[in-house]
């Protein structure tokens, strides 16, 4: 009896694989450009004729191939990029399956010329429908040129489905733009039917973006950078005016590869939410890097869709990073010349140094009435402090110690170079026991008292985990606390941090602990509840994948802050405002809600038809 099972010949296998790898001309462009990038090219030229149906030629100045490699590169599963199964988990090159060239060669006519970068001898290989026709010495100026003609000439069913040249070219153009964005250090030229579509030299990302998007000017871009666990995000988002009704200007690269991912688009959308009207999409060019093991790139053969193993973490990273930058741009206090987190961090680090310096000094001097946060001479700044005196009253009120508003001329806030926004003390008041209203030079600012205080305590706690531990009040009558086994484990996990923020807790056998001291401000008889509440908040935050440190700080902040609905005295309002402006990130609470909302005079005037 005749066998039913046949081993397929290579040419047929390649043709079948081509069905996956090559959908249309742009797939060929993509595979070849990625090969050039993998070969360390610094300049890549792409020449297209008739939408790629007649010709696709890629010329690069990369490493090139010697005679043997040139022949091997068209063999199935021939790749220089992986050698073992282990390599699969740490792929950093664009392609690695070793099937692109043989697949493409099986459905077109190929002429590939290459030489090793530093060699003089080049070779050319000609292949038709997967069959090698000729290999011989040749001449070439650059390292490698690969010409693909008459794509699908031997698969009429597929050729028939190719669209008009214009449409095929549109896909190629769109791919080339993304390749150019993801590799600003490489020069790219695209030539279509003899005309240069674009030509860019190696440059900085920001310049690359404005060379490729005619509507984008450099000052409509905001640089963003953030980090969470071992993931980072960086790139640019556009100011409001760059938002469009389509998603064309939302471009994401994950580990250098262009991908489509709804999680990220949605996270960006959330960060912009209250700035944009419905149905418009913000401009972004973002790069996310994360360990290769945390992402599955193979969910789709053309590799445009990916799945993150921890979508929540990615969402948080993207949303928080962008939200923070946007918030810092639109709120009352603007950081001069700063458009990225890194700069924000620099300022903030300086402040932290100063705070530590001050704390050290305070311990030495310990003057109770000294409201000066910083030594006036220790730094220079050109802008006045946030809270300032109305001009007429200045002289009279210079009597430092009993004036709650008195600050030496230069304070820590100056490091942030607040724009000349003065807040006048007569016009600070509380609205509905919930919001603090301030008259500022540019109009009006509103502060949500609860989230403001959360931010203040959050940063205080974080700082205490460093070197400036918070003070503690020793209890006259230590309190015994029995808890569940589960809570005990949590408590043990955060014990060190609790000590830093002012708790003194001793284990008393099994699931029992003794509280011997609490942070300043915890009321008598509230000690046990305070501790258990913090543990409860901690459990909640930990589930959201905050770090232990952040979770403890957020729990403490949540528990300690005044609730909305509490009447504040005038002095309390003032110190709240001052403390808030001393924060590293005064604009957003630890959960990402805005703290300060401003209402510019211009807007108010507009409402009254006064322009
Ligand atoms: P893969 O990229 O998955 O390895 P390909 O079929 O795309 O598979 O390419 C096969 C091999 O040919 C590559 O691994 C590389 O060694 C070589 N190659 C392809 N294009 C180039 C190029 N432009 N310059 C240098 N080497 C190349
Ligand atoms: Mg490849």
Fold and architecture overview:
- The chain has 611 residues and is of the alpha+beta class.
- It is built from 17 helices and 23 strands.
- The strands form 5 sheets. An 8-stranded mixed beta sheet has the order 5-4-3-6-2-1-7-8. A 5-stranded mixed beta sheet has the order 9-10-13-11-12, with helices on both faces.
- The longest helix is centred in the middle third of the chain and has 25 residues, at 341-365.
- It is elongated, with a radius of gyration of 32 Å.
- The structure holds adenosine-5'-diphosphate and magnesium ion (MG).
- Magnesium ion is lined by residues 31, 34-35, 95, 100.
Roughly what is the average pLDDT, rounded to an integer?
Answer: 78
Low-confidence parts lasting 5 or more residues at pLDDT below 50? 331-421
**Helical amount among residues, as a percent range?**
25-40%
- What is the straight-line distance between the termini? 95 Å
- Gyration radius, rounded: 32 Å
Shape from CA axes?
A: elongated
Strand content: 15-25%
In what order do the strands lie side by side in the largest sheet?
5-4-3-6-2-1-7-8
Please give a quick description of this structure.
The protein is of the alpha+beta class and 611 residues long. It has helices at residues 10-21, 25-38, 67-72, 100-106, 156-160, 165-182, 205-212, 262-272, 311-330, 341-365, 412-415, 449-464, 485-500, 527-543, 548-560, 570-581, 601-607, and strands at residues 43-49, 55-60, 109-114, 122-128, 131-138, 144-149, 187-192, 195-200, 221-228, 231-238, 250-254, 257-259, 284-289, 295-296, 307-308, 387-388, 423-431, 435-440, 443-448, 472-482, 504-507, 512-519, 596-600.
């Amino acid at each position: 009896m005749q066998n039913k099972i046949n081993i397929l010949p290579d040419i047929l296998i390649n043709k079948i694989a081509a069905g996956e790898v090559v959908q249309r001309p742009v797939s060929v462009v993509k595979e070849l450009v990625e090969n050039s990038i993998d070969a360390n090219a610094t300049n890549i030229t792409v020449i297209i004729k008739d939408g790629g149906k007649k010709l696709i030629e890629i010329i690069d100045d990369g490493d090139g191939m010697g005679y043997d490699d040139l022949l091997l590169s068209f063999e199935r599963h021939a790749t220089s990029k992986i050698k073992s199964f282990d390599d699969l988990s740490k792929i950093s090159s664009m392609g690695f399956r070793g099937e692109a060239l043989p697949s493409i060669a099986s459905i077109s006519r190929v002429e590939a010329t290459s030489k090793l970068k530093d060699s003089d001898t080049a070779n050319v290989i000609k292949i038709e429908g997967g069959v090698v026709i000729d290999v011989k010495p040749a001449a070439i100026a650059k390292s490698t040129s690969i010409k693909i003609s008459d794509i699908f000439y031997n698969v009429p069913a597929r050729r028939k489905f190719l669209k008009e040249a214009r449409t095929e070219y549109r896909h190629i153009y769109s791919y080339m733009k993304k390749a150019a964005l993801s590799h600003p250090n490489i020069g790219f030229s695209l030539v279509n039917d003899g005309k240069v579509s674009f030509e860019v030299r190696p440059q900085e990302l920001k310049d690359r973006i404005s060379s490729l998007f005619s509507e984008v000017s450099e000052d409509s871009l905001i640089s963003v950078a953030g980090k969470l666990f071992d993931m980072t995000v960086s790139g640019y988002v556009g100011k409001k005016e760059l938002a469009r009704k389509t998603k064309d200007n939302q471009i994401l690269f994950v580990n250098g590869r262009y991908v489509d991912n709804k999680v990220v688009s949605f996270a960006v959308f959330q960060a912009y939410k209250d700035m944009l009207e419905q149905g418009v999409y913000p401009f972004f060019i973002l790069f996310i890097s994360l360990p290769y093991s945390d992402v599955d790139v193979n969910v789709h053969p053309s590799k445009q869709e990916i799945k993150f193993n921890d979508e929540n973490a990615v969402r948080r990273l993207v949303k928080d990073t962008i939200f923070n930058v946007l918030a810092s741009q639109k709120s009352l206090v603007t950081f001069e010349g700063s458009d990225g987190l890194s700069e924000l961090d620099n300022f903030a680090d300086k402040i932290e140094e100063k705070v530590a310096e001050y704390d050290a000094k305070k311990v030495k001097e310990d003057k109770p009435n000294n409201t000066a946060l910083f030594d006036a001479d220790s730094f220079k700044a050109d802008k006045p402090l946030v809270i300032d005196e109305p001009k007429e009253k200045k002289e009279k009120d210079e009597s430092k110690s009993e004036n709650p508003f008195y600050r030496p001329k230069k304070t820590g806030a100056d490091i942030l170079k607040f724009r000349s926004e003065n807040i006048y003390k007569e016009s600070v008041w509380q609205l509905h026991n919930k919001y603090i209203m301030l008259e500022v030079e540019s109009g009006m600012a509103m502060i949500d008292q609860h989230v403001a205080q959360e931010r203040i305590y959050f940063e205080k706690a974080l700082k205490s985990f460093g070197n400036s531990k918070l003070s503690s009040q020793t209890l006259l009558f230590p309190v015994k606390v029995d808890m569940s086994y589960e809570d005990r484990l949590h408590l043990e996990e955060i014990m060190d941090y609790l000590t830093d923020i002012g708790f003194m807790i001793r284990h008393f056998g099994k699931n029992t602990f003794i509280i011997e001291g609490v942070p300043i401000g915890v009321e008598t008889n509230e000690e046990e509840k305070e501790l258990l509440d913090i543990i409860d908040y901690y459990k909640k935050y930990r589930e959201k994948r905050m770090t232990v440190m952040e979770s403890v700080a957020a729990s403490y902040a949540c528990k300690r802050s005044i609730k909305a609905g509490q009447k504040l005295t005038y002095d309390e309002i003032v110190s709240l405002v001052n403390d808030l402006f001393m924060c590293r990130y005064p604009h957003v609470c630890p959960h990402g809600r805005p703290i300060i909302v401003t209402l510019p005079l211009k807007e108010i005037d507009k409402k009254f038809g006064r322009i």
